[in-house]
């Protein structure tokens, strides 16, 4: 217990340092909330919530990184993935396995008690993702804030926008380019997320059991990896999960072992292995596999992701509840 408390104290101290002097980057800036909640440090408050969850369930860290990615890829980083509704982004097929909503709710409750109506839900996702990266061993970066919350959340848009597990490398490059992100950003973000993430067996069953109807596994996959995945994912066990990083020593550590495994033909998803075979992305994979500055490069890519399609200034709103737009909240209170 004392060890966990000391660790949380260290993390909160580090976050307090990182959220110090404001640094401007376009419409967003580091330290946006400094002085806006009295003497309270918003990022340290969020860090406390995320750290507490880390000691309860470390696997949630990957969920927070994924939550940020899925939010930013659909209409920009506007917190729209958090909105409830029968046709909201949450209900889209790619978001059925997304987790972390309750952590953002807890963070929102914590900051609302201190300074209501100031901190956006979109920023809470970005801050929580930064903390998750750090707690996963992926280094620390200074998160930009100042986003405002979107008013629209569409499952239809999410279904056609979010990259699926069967996406090809050219399609992935095009999808990221549409968001103003480069092929290097794509490899960094997919690799970073997959180094701590998991996948349901349904996403790889065909690849390890009946690749393209051959009755055999994908020949591009290392046989040892095939055997390992088959033991975890028998033909009918589609709900089981496997680590996307097949390094047994660091399945929950955000490092560059994912890229090393791809070069060894141990990519779990089809897109993972194709990144190592494509003539444009293989050199990027090889470079990152031997990179000593992967944490810094991944952090920079996360900052660029966090700036996609943001609402700032008077755009959007600052939601009182991350699950509903303010009109709905006010209507419920008056009713």
TrEMBL record:
<feature type="binding site">
    <location>
        <position position="89"/>
    </location>
    <ligand>
        <name>Ca(2+) 1</name>
    </ligand>
</feature>
<dbReference type="InterPro" id="IPR033905">
    <property type="entry name" value="Secretory_peroxidase"/>
</dbReference>
<keyword id="KW-0575">Peroxidase</keyword>
<keyword id="KW-0479">Metal-binding</keyword>
<keyword id="KW-0349">Heme</keyword>
<dbReference type="GO" id="GO:0140825">
    <property type="term" value="F:lactoperoxidase activity"/>
</dbReference>
<keyword id="KW-0408">Iron</keyword>
<feature type="binding site">
    <location>
        <position position="245"/>
    </location>
    <ligand>
        <name>Ca(2+) 2</name>
    </ligand>
</feature>
<keyword id="KW-0106">Calcium</keyword>
<keyword id="KW-0732">Signal</keyword>
<dbReference type="InterPro" id="IPR010255">
    <property type="entry name" value="Haem_peroxidase_sf"/>
</dbReference>
<dbReference type="Pfam" id="PF00141">
    <property type="entry name" value="peroxidase"/>
</dbReference>
<feature type="active site" description="Proton acceptor">
    <location>
        <position position="70"/>
    </location>
</feature>
<feature type="binding site">
    <location>
        <position position="74"/>
    </location>
    <ligand>
        <name>Ca(2+) 1</name>
    </ligand>
</feature>
<comment type="similarity">
    <text>Belongs to the peroxidase family. Classical plant (class III) peroxidase subfamily.</text>
</comment>
<feature type="domain" description="Plant heme peroxidase family profile">
    <location>
        <begin position="27"/>
        <end position="326"/>
    </location>
</feature>
<feature type="binding site">
    <location>
        <position position="163"/>
    </location>
    <ligand>
        <name>substrate</name>
    </ligand>
</feature>
<feature type="binding site">
    <location>
        <position position="80"/>
    </location>
    <ligand>
        <name>Ca(2+) 1</name>
    </ligand>
</feature>
<keyword id="KW-0376">Hydrogen peroxide</keyword>
<feature type="site" description="Transition state stabilizer">
    <location>
        <position position="66"/>
    </location>
</feature>
<comment type="function">
    <text>Removal of H(2)O(2), oxidation of toxic reductants, biosynthesis and degradation of lignin, suberization, auxin catabolism, response to environmental stresses such as wounding, pathogen attack and oxidative stress. These functions might be dependent on each isozyme/isoform in each plant tissue.</text>
</comment>
<dbReference type="InterPro" id="IPR000823">
    <property type="entry name" value="Peroxidase_pln"/>
</dbReference>
<feature type="binding site">
    <location>
        <position position="78"/>
    </location>
    <ligand>
        <name>Ca(2+) 1</name>
    </ligand>
</feature>
<keyword id="KW-0964">Secreted</keyword>
<dbReference type="InterPro" id="IPR002016">
    <property type="entry name" value="Haem_peroxidase"/>
</dbReference>
<feature type="binding site">
    <location>
        <position position="255"/>
    </location>
    <ligand>
        <name>Ca(2+) 2</name>
    </ligand>
</feature>
<dbReference type="GO" id="GO:0020037">
    <property type="term" value="F:heme binding"/>
</dbReference>
<protein>
    <recommendedName>
        <fullName>Peroxidase</fullName>
        <ecNumber>1.11.1.7</ecNumber>
    </recommendedName>
</protein>
<keyword id="KW-0560">Oxidoreductase</keyword>
<feature type="binding site" description="axial binding residue">
    <location>
        <position position="194"/>
    </location>
    <ligand>
        <name>heme b</name>
    </ligand>
</feature>
<feature type="signal peptide">
    <location>
        <begin position="1"/>
        <end position="26"/>
    </location>
</feature>
<keyword id="KW-0325">Glycoprotein</keyword>
<feature type="disulfide bond">
    <location>
        <begin position="121"/>
        <end position="322"/>
    </location>
</feature>
<dbReference type="GO" id="GO:0005576">
    <property type="term" value="C:extracellular region"/>
</dbReference>
<dbReference type="GO" id="GO:0042744">
    <property type="term" value="P:hydrogen peroxide catabolic process"/>
</dbReference>
<dbReference type="GO" id="GO:0046872">
    <property type="term" value="F:metal ion binding"/>
</dbReference>
<feature type="disulfide bond">
    <location>
        <begin position="201"/>
        <end position="233"/>
    </location>
</feature>
<feature type="disulfide bond">
    <location>
        <begin position="37"/>
        <end position="115"/>
    </location>
</feature>
<feature type="binding site">
    <location>
        <position position="76"/>
    </location>
    <ligand>
        <name>Ca(2+) 1</name>
    </ligand>
</feature>
<feature type="disulfide bond">
    <location>
        <begin position="72"/>
        <end position="77"/>
    </location>
</feature>
<dbReference type="GO" id="GO:0006979">
    <property type="term" value="P:response to oxidative stress"/>
</dbReference>
<keyword id="KW-1015">Disulfide bond</keyword>
